[in-house]
Amino acid sequence: MVLLAGCDRSKYIVLDPKGPVGHEELRLIIISVILCAVVIIPVIGIFVYIAIRYRDTPDNKAPYQPEWADSKVLEVIWWGIPVVIVAILGVFTAKTTLNLTKPPVKDVKPIVIQVTSLDWKWMFTYPDKKIATVNYAEIPAGVPVQFVLTSSGTMNSFWVPQLGGQEYTMPGMSMGLWLQADKTGEYFGSGANFTGKGFAHMQFRVKSVTQENFNKWADSVKKNSPALTNQGYKNLEKPGLEKELSFSSYPKGLYEDIVNKHGGTYMDHMNHMGDSSSMSDMKKDDKSMSGMDMEHNK
User: Fold this and answer.
1) 174: closest CA among 272, 100, 79, 288?
2) Which residues pair with 245 in a beta bridge?
3) Which parts of the chain span the membrane according to its record (predicted)?
4) 53: which of 18, 72, 238, 242 lies 20 to 30 Å off by Cα?
């Protein structure tokens, strides 16, 4: 009973994914564990066997070979098996990594949410809806979401364990992370990079709702919430904790200004940043990424 009590996956949110990205990463975790077990379990077994078989006892019949130097067969085994395992793991990792750079589904129009990490709070801006929130984000279920990430100070890491892996937020850079929630629900999110005394409280929630309720929520925020002004943003930038907030609007180009303020004008950003582009622009950018990469390498 004590051992079975630990089998509830809902208590271990990384192992309880609620979206296609999370499922893909869980599959990679399981493959990695199996491949590691292929090495670890035999090594432990051999260790126990050798400790018992060759221990120094009066009745030990093991042959004494003081001049033994090496064995080509054993060398091939204990070097060959790890090489094969690393190669297999590398193939699966590369395949998964490439898959996660694309929208989880192709037949649904994605949305963009801009994310800025502050000390010690998270700001979300919706370029299509022209609204903003602090310490919570609402998304439509079954719709791919491209979280576009930056930082207005200390480097951090954006993480929603049940939806997918983490991605760094860095000053002067715009990073991209595709996530999607399959069903409605509320998911825990947090910063995963130590950023000072308020780090432990730097948490947020992601609420997945139906498309209809998402539109209603956005309209409600637009009608009933105050506007985020330049001065209001400057206040948010100051180190400190903050409760959940909603804003009916925010200064035009705020996300781009945050990126550029920290040196972003000198970077080639491969991710759609929002305010100045439409969703069709984002799709064109995605198609041209490979060509841009080649040009950048030159």
Assistant:
1) 272
2) 134
3) 28-52, 73-94
4) 72
